[in-house]
Amino acid sequence: MSFVTKTLKGSAIDVGSADVPASLDDLLWPECGAAILRRQTPKNIHTWLDGLNPEVLPRGRVILPLEKLAQTVGHLCDMSGLPAGPERDWLEKDIVSLAASFSGLAGAKFLRLRLDVVTTNACRKFHIDAIKARLVCTYRGTGTQYGISTDGTDPKHVFTVQTGSPILLRGTLWPQQRPSGMLHRSPPIEGTGETRLVLVLDPVDDPDEEI
User: Which of 39, 58, 79, 207 has the least C-beta neighbours within 10 A?
Assistant: First the structure.
């Protein structure tokens, strides 16, 4: 296992880089504003996802316990018409694996699972989420963008997460943290013809309060 940090230009805040999911628990460090799992999507998966008709990409939003996640992801893929095969099997297993790692890190009894198919400038403004933490993984298209700002303006230096690499972001409800100024956004893609497939995971303590 390995975990390294890099200091963003013009900032005292670090972004952690992990080679294995187990190392992402270093997001608990006070100096670490976010953590990225460094990896590349297998070439055959990347080619397969990019070649799919956007209409068959899985999409949906649901709150559920971890033990029901695999079944639910499979159901969402069935509903969208995502073709069966080893590539789909990889995608489903990867989502479940990331959810298990994130659930343990966040101490979450339940997760909010989102699979978004994005073709517009959704969430194009830099922001920090009013939640405890969030995991975002872009399986197709341009990855999440992030940067530091402490004065309410957009970051002067913008970084883009590699496609297929999950990023863990602290929200405003993360306990015992000093404000990091770590902001993020979805990349502006409207009008480019690009289609993104994005996984978003949030921790949920009480599903009844989310309704």
Answer: 79
